[in-house]
Write a structure and sequence with these properties.
Blueprint: H1 2-17, E1 21-34, E2 44-56, E3 61-80, E4 83-104, E5 107-129, E6 132-139, E7 147-158, E8 163-172, E9 188-198
Antiparallel strand pairs: 1-2, 1-9, 2-3, 3-4, 4-5, 5-6, 5-7, 7-8, 8-9
Pfam families: OMP_b-brl_2 (PF13568)
InterPro entries: Beta-barrel_OMP_2
Keywords: Signal
Length: about 200
């Protein structure tokens, strides 16, 4: 399944890249969960890295396709009867956004849909009482839906050298939980990204 997902993403990317320009990007992903059942979650820092390709219709408008490995999730803290608990949710996805890209001089804007394919999920619980801390790690890859759908919107600046700096918001459109304790609950992925990219000949 993972090989199929990767192959599909590469095929989409290659289709765009063959027409125009291709490059790399990497940066920080600041992720959390939103929804009626996600009020107590805070942002968790992660990362994103991958490939980007753009097909330009003219000097202003184009379509940008990306293949990004992104660490998402969230964290929350709570206490009861002198026991402090920190729970971290790590969800690793392969993100495939297809974005309308508008560029004026070096300034650009982008927005469009995104499909995300779950690669691995892990829950880490740190339970502290007195001077003792116990850490439990549980693989929960089977709990979220294997595919998430959302949208991405952002802006940035690209220099004539091909280097660019961008800020993007990713929002989920569907609840992530298929099984487990949160099945049927309203929790969706959400994150902010700060990335550095390089696209030669852009």
């Amino acid at each position: 399944m993972k090989k199929f997902i990767l192959g599909l993403g590469l095929a989409l990317l290659a289709g765009t890249a063959s027409a125009q320009t291709m490059g790399v990007k990497a940066g920080l992903n600041y992720a959390t969960l939103t929804g009626n059942d996600a009020e107590n979650y805070d942002y968790r820092p992660g990362y994103t890295v991958g490939l980007t390709a753009r097909h330009g219709f003219n000097s202003l408008i184009g379509v940008q396709t990306e293949l990004l490995f992104t660490s998402k999730g969230a964290k929350r803290e709570f206490s009861a009867s002198g026991v402090e608990t920190t729970e971290k949710l790590r969800l690793n996805y392969l993100d495939v956004p297809v974005l309308l890209h508008l560029q004026i001089s070096g300034l650009y804007f982008e927005m469009g849909p995104q499909a995300s394919f779950l690669l691995k999920g892990k829950q880490i619980a740190e339970v502290s009482r007195s001077n003792t801390t116990n850490i439990t790690k549980t693989v929960i890859t089977d709990n979220p839906y294997p595919i998430d759908f959302g949208y991405a919107a952002g802006l940035g600046f690209r220099a004539p050298s091909g280097f660019g700096l961008g800020v993007r918001y990713n929002g989920g459109l569907k609840d992530i939980d298929d099984e487990g304790a949160f099945e049927g609950k309203e929790r969706r992925n959400a994150s902010f990204q700060l990335t550095l990219s390089y696209v030669p000949g852009f």
